[in-house]
Write a structure and sequence with these properties.
It is a single chain. This protein has helices at about 5-25, 45-50, 55-75, 100-105, 115-120, 130-140, 155-165, 185-195, 220-225, 245-250, 260-270; strands spanning about 85-90, 95, 125, 145-150, 175-180, 195-205, 235-240. The protein is about 45% helix and about 10% strand. It is globular, with a radius of gyration of 28 Å. The chain has a five-stranded parallel β-sheet, with helices on both faces. The protein is an alpha/beta fold.
């Protein structure tokens, strides 16, 4: 339908008035989305641990290597007076706590000792891939299994219940050494070594092997490893854990009091990045 000149004029006035009214309206404030929780950075690590075949493969690889090293040591044990033993860490070495990490992500929470204690009390952690087969094999060879963990002493019974539920050998107080005062495991390892011949140690953290690896910075920890590479894969067997550990504390120079923004910044500042494509 063809519009008349009058209708076009009226339409122009309406549009002009509308535009004027719109111009007089205050601009809408766009709210910024909330900053993501620090625990969101756990997503990829936790997904890798829970879903990837590569994570399971690395765990099996560690326990297969431990079995070969155990056999080799036992075959060369002529004259050894003390009974043989192995020392294993608990968390992310023989027990998988990734559901706790997943809960942190879902709830937007950071690690807290009270929520961790509640998780431990459930005694529902699963065995790491390959852990039960290896520990059963060690026990069948007459090798004692000692669990040296930095779980607290008041978590002993819950942890032992969990170890028994997954069927691990030597899941008793005589073979379980929790953290009493210090997180340094040196004295507890020495206690086992006084009565047993410790063939190998397994853990996900450098402190599971020697306090000499515990340095103030990430660079110093890396250098300490590079200084004795032959120890790994022989006496020391490392399990993968990209979710947490002393390696993270080293990024903050062990200052865990930093707030979330400071921790996120420290993490990014340690990234070694490519300079990017060259501009033409």
């Amino acid at each position: 339908m063809k519009r008349s000149p009058l209708s076009l004029a009226l339409l122009g006035l309406v549009c002009a008035g509308g535009l004027s009214a719109c111009a007089q309206q205050p601009a809408q404030q766009t709210s910024q989305p909330p900053a993501p929780a620090l625990s969101d950075q756990l997503v990829m690590a936790t997904l890798w641990m829970q879903t990837s075949g590569e994570y399971a493969a690395l765990s099996h690889q560690a326990f297969n290597l431990a079995r070969r090293n155990l056999d080799r040591a036992l075959a060369a044990a002529d004259g050894q007076q003390r009974p043989p033993a192995i020392v294993v860490d608990v968390d992310e070495t023989v027990l998988d706590n990734s559901p706790y990490e997943a809960w942190l992500i879902a709830s937007g929470e950071n690690y807290q000792s009270d929520t961790w204690h509640q998780w431990v009390d459930k005694a529902s952690a699963r065995a790491m891939p390959g852990a039960k087969a290896f520990l059963d094999y060690a026990a069948s060879r007459g090798v004692a299994v000692f669990y040296i963990t930095n779980r607290r002493a008041d978590e002993t019974q819950s942890t032992l219940r969990n170890l028994r539920q997954v069927g691990f050998p030597d899941a008793d107080e005589a073979h379980f050494l929790p953290r009493i005062e210090s997180s340094d495991k040196t004295a507890r390892r020495q206690r086992v070594a006084q009565s047993h011949w410790v063939i190998l140690l397994m853990g996900d953290n450098l402190g599971d092997f020697s306090a000499g690896f515990e340095r103030a910075s990430a660079e110093a920890r890396r250098a300490a490893v590079e200084a004795q590479p032959d120890a790994f894969g022989s006496r020391y067997i490392v399990l993968p854990n990209p979710a947490y550990g002393a390696w993270e504390g080293a990024l903050y120079h062990n200052d865990w009091s930093l707030d979330d923004a400071q921790k996120a910044s420290a993490r990014r500042n340690h990234l070694q990045q490519w300079g990017g494509p060259e501009t033409p």
